[in-house]
Design a protein that fits this description.
heterotrimer; A alpha/beta (about 210); B mainly alpha (about 230); C mainly alpha (about 220); B: about 230 residues; mainly alpha; C: about 220 residues; about 85% helix
Chain lengths: ~210, ~230, ~220
């Protein structure tokens, strides 16, 4: 079944139209990349899909449920890595994750597992503001998978990651439905089966990876 | 003349009639003299202001429940008209106080809570202006309006109670003679009509403002291939 | 989902962050001492009028310290975009709000632990359990309101201006009742029992209201 069904998604900030008339269907297990320049509307679209933002127009269904009305139920289902890491600087990596375990009623044993999965076990007790940008990004990803979501919405997760970004992301994305925004076309081709291209808030079309030529 | 202009004309005519009643029909107060005539408009404005803020409260509650844009518009209109009437109340109160008590201001329950009322709803208008227009501003304002409406009687009660903790002069209010009562009720009625008219006109203006900001129908994209369609 | 676990987790996280950075409490403590100094010179306090004026200075200092403390509860979250991450979890917004109010209230109480003894030492006013009780009761309601409105203005322009404008009218009843309570505890006329009763009533009223409002304010 289709995990995500979006019709005519649009969002307006004040008088500015950030996104207009975007349709999107994502099936279970699919990995979709959202491409576009800065300001094209990628982050806005991803925030809408993650139910962090309510679109000013359009309809969205996730896992068969109305995304806005059932967003509290859907939070168990989806994990979101936002554009900004959103970590607590004075807390260690492990403490950051423990806090989110408490918020989501997840056992704290997950912290160790997840740190291992993203390769941060060695810095578990370092303050997060003393982590490199790449490590912070890994920590944000770790937080998003704490509760074992079935759907991942990732906003430029590769932004500060190094050369092993693809490996890490492939591991994390395995067996999940994923919508991934990125600038990196090669990475998009490698990780995803389809791409959606945005330009100035509108969908220019979707394509299988074979047709994305840059 | 459209119906808004007609309503406005009626409201103004009524207020002129009320003015006539205040200055020609009502007797001069024995103790306070001609200055006492301020009372009619002063108290009527206060009641009208509370009425406007009740509109803000109800509009806010309805908006929080079902996000009705009309409810939000009523709230906006009510707040603006309410602040105007509160300002009138405050100024008239001060003009009345000076000849009677010798000071422009005393910290009694009524004046203090009217001032707090003004501050709260001026804050409401400021929040609307500063927040991102649309859903965020409407929700925040609804909360501010609800808290504000609850706060005013709480403040009034607190100040009244506070006064009992400090020995001080007690202001005696004599019963109103019949002509004064009649004049007051008439003025009150005319003022409420004026308030309702102003709110209706402002509601219309807010509707037009909203329309200008509303999302235009998104134009259909030409030949956007549907996801999953054959390449 | 255990809301209490969320409340305690949020409160613990905020207090732990503050402990690690040690920014707010020392700054507020310094501010409070300065406020007392200025009060002394501004009011020409001597041993005769100390009991009359000291309660006023107490509440002034507390109100301004409160505005700073509560204003900061969401400032840090906003900077780090972490509020959104919290709201993306299934945790109830009311529980998150309660946790933040608890932490912010605790920080203000720490400042009161400086303010009350300092007031007593500098102005020679009596320092009794009655005074402490009144201040603590008022802090509860003020924290609930302050944190709610801090959340409201967090996403709005000119928040430093808006927070006092929106919050102070709601704090007035607390200052009135608290003022009478402290004054009567210091020996001046006033019904202490009634004042405490009022503070309790206001606490209950505003805790209920802010809890109901929290989900509209915090959730998108």
């Amino acid at each position: 079944m289709s995990i995500i069904v979006g019709n005519g998604l649009a969002h307006r900030f004040g008088n500015e139209l950030a996104l207009e008339g975007v349709d999107l269907v994502v099936d279970a297990g699919e990995h979709i990349a959202v491409l576009g320049d800065n300001g094209a509307g990628k982050t806005t679209l991803l925030r809408i899909l993650a139910t962090a933002l309510r679109p000013t127009a359009g309809r969205l269904q996730i896992a068969g449920l109305d995304a806005f009305r059932e967003r509290r139920r859907l939070r168990h289902y989806l994990g979101y890595v936002a554009h900004a890491p959103g970590l607590y600087p004075a807390l260690s990596a492990a403490e950051n994750l423990q806090f989110f375990c408490d918020l989501q009623d997840v056992s704290r044993s997950r912290v160790e597992q997840v740190l291992d999965e993203v390769g941060l076990t060695s810095v578990a007790y370092r303050r997060s503001d003393q982590l490199s940008r790449g490590m912070q990004q890994r920590l944000a990803i770790a937080r998003a998978i704490l509760h074992e979501p079935r759907l991942l919405i990732l906003d430029e997760p590769d932004a500060s990651l190094g050369s092993d970004a693809a490996d890490l992301l492939m591991r994390v994305m395995k067996d999940k439905t994923v919508v991934l925004a990125t600038h990196d076309h090669a990475l998009a081709n490698r990780l995803c089966q389809r791409t959606l291209v945005l330009r100035r808030g509108r969908s220019v079309g979707t394509a299988t990876r074979l047709r994305v030529v840059r | 003349m459209n119906r808004y202009e007609g309503a406005a004309a009626v409201a103004v005519a009524l207020m002129l009639l009320a003015a006539g009643a205040i200055f020609l029909y009502a007797p001069t107060d024995a103790l306070q003299g001609p200055v006492q005539r301020i009372f009619y408009l002063h108290v009527s404005s206060a009641v009208a202001a509370y009425g406007c803020f009740a509109v803000v409260l109800v509009g806010g509650i309805i908006y929080l429940r079902n996000e009705s844009p009309a409810a939000d518009r009523f709230a906006r209109a009510g707040a603006l008209v309410g602040v105007v009437f509160t300002s009138v109340t405050l100024v008239m109160g001060m003009l009345w106080a000076k000849p009677i008590w010798g000071v422009y201001w005393t910290w009694d329950a009524r004046l203090t809570s009217t001032l707090v009322l003004w501050i709260i709803y001026a804050g409401y208008l400021l929040v609307r202006r500063l927040a991102e227009p649309g859903r965020q501003a409407a929700r925040i304002a609804a909360i501010v309006g609800i808290f504000g409406f609850v706060d005013v009687p709480v403040v009034h009660f607190s100040v009244t109670w506070w006064r009992t903790q400090h020995p001080g002069p007690i202001v005696v209010n004599d019963a109103l003679p019949a002509e004064m009562l009649a004049t007051f009720l008439f003025t009150l009625g005319c003022t409420l009509v004026l308030a309702a008219t102003l709110i209706a006109i402002r509601y219309r203006i807010e509707t037009l403002i909203d329309a200008r900001q509303a999302i235009a129908e998104p134009t259909k994209l030409v030949a956007a291939p549907q996801p999953g369609a054959a390449p | 989902m255990n809301p209490l676990r969320v409340v305690l987790a949020v409160a613990r996280k905020d207090l732990r962050s503050e402990w690690r950075t040690r920014e707010l409490v020392p700054a507020l403590a310094q501010f409070i001492i300065l406020a007392l100094l200025i009060g002394n010179f501004g009011f020409q306090i001597d041993s005769r009028n100390a009991s009359t004026i000291a309660p006023g200075i107490l509440w002034l200092a507390l109100v301004f310290a409160g505005l700073v403390a509560f204003g900061r509860t969401f400032a840090a979250e906003r900077e780090q975009a972490s509020l959104e991450a919290m709201l993306m979890t299934p945790a109830s917004p009311v529980a998150i709000f309660a946790g933040k109010a608890l932490a912010a209230g605790a920080l203000l109480v720490m400042c009161e632990a400086v303010l009350l003894p300092a007031l007593s030492i500098l102005f020679g006013t009596p320092f009794s359990g009655d005074v402490v009780a009144a201040v603590l009761l008022a802090t509860v309601g003020m924290a609930a309101l302050g944190v709610l409105f801090a959340a409201i203005v967090a996403r709005v322009r000119a928040r430093e201006l808006l927070l006092p404008l929106l919050t102070l009218p709601l704090w007035i009843p607390f200052v009135i009742a608290g003022g009478v309570a402290v004054q009567s505890a210091m020996g001046l006329p006033g019904n202490y029992q009634q004042a405490i009763g009022l503070l309790l009533d206001f606490d209950i009223l505003f805790i209920v209201l802010t809890s109901l409002a929290a989900r509209f304010v915090l959730d998108e």
